[in-house]
């Protein structure tokens, strides 16, 4: 598990991932957990994980930066195989490219969409605020799972 408890929202995201694992994969064992927010941290932590747990087959990451680094660490360690998977949140271009290239990243979750889509949504709220319209105080973002099966829709359209 590559988490980042230094930021409250990412601590909650990490806890949610762990809760989801326990619920959906009750036989899974979390053998290592460390903080990684960017590719450099992701690769370093993954190399350490794989040295201590060479039979490990799954890495969950709270963000795309750690996931991209984990992907590089898996490749460098010669562990890239059909039964190894990295699962993350953010859907960065690098994550989606790794899916297209059939690397270790198997799924990432977009929140609302890629940056142009998020900018469109935020701009819409700003327009409403400027017009004196009420906007919600709590905004729920759409969660979009991206896998090899639908990655072309998101990597090409930039939604």
A few lines on this structure:
The chain is an alpha/beta fold and 159 residues long.
Number of domains: 1
Uncertain regions: pLDDT < 50 for 5+ in a row?
A: none
**Count of helical regions:** 6
Indicate the percent of residues in helices.
Answer: 40-55%
Distance between the amino and carboxyl termini: 28 Å
CATH superfamily label:
Response regulator
Name the CATH architecture.
Answer: 3-Layer(aba) Sandwich
Question: What is the alpha-carbon Rg in Å?
Answer: 17 Å
What string, H for helix and E for strand, traces the elements in order? EHEHEHEHEHEH
Question: Which structural class is indicated by helix and strand composition?
Answer: alpha/beta
Largest sheet: 4 strands, mixed
**Percent strand:** 15-25%
Strand tally, please?
6
**Any idea what the shape is?**
globular
What kind of assembly state do the chains in view correspond to? single chain
State mean pLDDT (0 to 100 scale): 93
| CATH top level assignment | Alpha Beta
Side-by-side strand order of the widest sheet: 3-4-5-6
CATH third-tier fold name: Rossmann fold
What does this structure look like?
The protein is α/β, with parallel strands linked by helices and 159 residues long. It has one domain: 3-Layer(aba) Sandwich (Rossmann fold), CATH 3.40.50.2300. Helices cover 47% and strands 15% of the residues. The protein contains six helices and six strands, in the order βαβαβαβαβαβα. Strands 3-4-5-6 form a four-stranded mixed sheet. Helix 1 links the parallel strand 1 and strand 2. Helix 2 crosses helix 3 and helix 4 crosses helix 6. The longest helix has 17 residues. The protein is globular.
């Amino acid at each position: 598990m590559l988490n980042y408890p230094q930021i409250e929202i990412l601590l909650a995201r990490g806890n949610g991932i762990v809760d989801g694992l326990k619920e959906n994969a009750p036989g899974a064992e979390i053998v290592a957990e460390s903080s990684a927010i960017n590719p450099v941290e992701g690769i370093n932590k993954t190399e350490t994980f794989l040295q201590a747990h060479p039979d490990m087959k799954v890495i969950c990451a709270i963000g795309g930066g750690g996931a991209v680094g984990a992907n590089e660490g898996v490749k460098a360690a010669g562990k890239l195989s059909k039964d190894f998977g990295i699962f993350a949140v953010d859907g960065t271009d690098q994550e989606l490219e790794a899916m297209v290239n059939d690397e270790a990243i198997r799924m990432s979750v977009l929140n609302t969409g890629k940056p142009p889509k998020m900018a469109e949504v935020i701009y819409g709220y700003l327009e409403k605020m400027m017009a004196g319209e009420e906007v919600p105080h709590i905004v729920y973002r759409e969660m979009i799972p991206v896998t090899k099966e639908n990655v072309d829709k998101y990597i090409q359209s930039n939604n």
